[in-house]
Design brief:
three-stranded antiparallel β-sheet, globular, Thrombin, subunit H, five-stranded antiparallel β-sheet, mainly beta
Length: about 90
């Protein structure tokens, strides 16, 4: 079992393996204001508001891909405007 932590100030996503206690870094170089959610397959979706994108961390393959890119005028957390599938 794993727990994921968004470190908004450092722009990193950390993972803690609850069985071993080992802490690792899933992603770095992200913006501030990060949000996380998981799906039933164990993939982690990362909303990177600063960079107007949504990333997916595939836990089974340990890969990160861009799911959605935003464009437009910034209002609040994300910019409004047309979304671009990556």
């Amino acid at each position: 079992m794993r727990t994921y932590i968004a470190e908004g100030d450092s722009g990193k996503i950390r993972v803690i393996n609850l069985s071993t206690g080992i802490i690792g870094t899933v992603a770095s170089g992200l913006g501030q204001g990060l949000r996380l959610t998981l799906n039933s397959a164990g993939n982690v979706f990362i909303a990177d508001g600063h960079n107007q994108r949504i990333l997916r961390f595939d836990a089974a393959r340990s890969t990160i891909s861009t799911v959605l890119l935003g464009s437009g005028v910034k209002i609040g957390f994300f910019k409004t405007g047309e979304a671009v599938l990556a």
